[in-house]
Amino acid sequence: MSSTLGILTLVIGLIFNLLGCIGLIRLPDVYNRLQAATKCVTLGTCMVLASVAIMAGGHPPMVIKALLCLTFVLLTAPTAAHALARGAHASGVRLWEGSVMDRYRDDHEPGVESKDQP
Asked: What is the C-alpha separation between 70 and 25, in angstroms, rounded?
C-alpha cells in the first residue's frame, strides 16, 4: 500500500514540476515566471520529497532527511521568489504589456493609479 501511495505521490510531484518548467518557458515576464516556479515547482518538489519519505518508511534517517528538505524548500522557495520579484520591480523591470494592474506600484507610489482603477 505504501509503495502505491509513494508512486502516486511521485507521479503527482513530477507532473507539477513539469507544469512549472513549462510555465518558466511559456509565460511572458519575470513575475509570471516566478509565479510558476514558486507554486508549481515548490509543490512538485515537496510531493517528490514526500514520496521519498513514504517509500523509505523502513529507514528512519532517510525519512527525517526528506522531511527536513521538504520543510526547507517549503519555507525558502516562496521567500526567495518574493525577494526576486521585489528586486526586479525595484530595478525597473516592466510588467508584461498585457498585465492589468500593478498593485505594488499603486501601494508604494502615491498618485500613480493602474489603468483599471475607476
From this structure: 25
